[in-house]
User: What shape does this take?
Amino acid sequence: MSERTERQKEYWRKNVTMTLILLAIWAIITFVVGYYARDLSFQFFGWPFAFYMGAQGSLILYVVIIGYYAWYMNKLDQEYGVAEGEDD
Assistant: This one.
């Protein structure tokens, strides 16, 4: 097997860094906010914050995380010339 080039290492480093950042955000949303939401007793869009986070808020943020990751990786793939071609 051939050694990876510096450009490939940089691409992989950026990929892993973004993945770890988004996983940390996911963990905070899932465990920290969910755990402490009951203590945060204020209204959010007319509902108690704990109910909103459990029913809607976390799910919306998960979709945003997935959308951002897809956008970022497409941009990174194009920047490093490894983007997949479109099938016509």
About this structure: The chain has a mean pLDDT of 84.
